[in-house]
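Table S2 (continued). Query chain:
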Amino acid sequence: MSRTGTVQRERIPAGDVALDVLEAGRGGRPLLLVHGFCGAKEDFAEALGPLTERGWHVVVPDLRGHGGSDKPAGTGAYSLAALAADVIALAEALSWRRFTLLGHSMGGMVAQLVALAHPGRLDGLVLMDTGHGPLREVDAGPVELAKAVVAEGGTAALVKAQQETEGPLDTPAHQRLLVERAGYREFCEAKTLGASADMWLGMVDELFSQPDRLQALRGLRVPTLVIVGEQDAPFLGDGRRMAAAIPSARLAVISNAGHSPQFEAPERWLDELSGFLDELGGPQDGPDAPHGAHA
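Corresponding output:
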């Protein structure tokens, strides 16, 4: 199969939903990048070119309830377990026997569930600005107010409310980007607007009440990179603990970055990620097979 760096947008059936994805580098080593809560596949769009140049077949989905992917009705359609099942279903649809997985924030929690349930499917794991259990470092008080806002007016009302307040992820690095990068504020708001209210309400309580996975992660035998921005106070401690707990893990703390180092310190972030990925080598059982429209 020929390798191409052309980025394509597709909808791929994954279990009981269809996911909207960006894809590039067919024929390379399989790499799946998973965004966070109210994120989108565009969170990693700028990395597709550099990663495909290094030999990776990169797929970046919108998770269910986000962006262009299906948005099932009802809060019961959303959980970390459901999102993890979607990740495995997407890998199956791609005919990926093994792959490397990156998860950002909530996506990193999903990636941990995938790694713990299916360690034999992973050649490598990247946990980026994420936690190993309940969000202990985030004040739950404002979240209760936000739940009422979303229940009443959807994510559009939430975006309007957030314009008048400062949240725990509004680090100096984030504030710098709002000033220096034209359109960045609108980009961030568009991702929240593109998320369903049912998804938001269905996921938010679990993020604060999920079981702690740190002890289970001590038994993980998958090469792992933990990345965290030095200003990302809610996740810096969890990142350090996961890197210490996972036997094959190493930690990269990104200076001058907060919760989204791929935007706030892109060169350092890409250097750390690329260095780790280069060390993994190729998949153990050969290149990925085509799926559906790729045949």
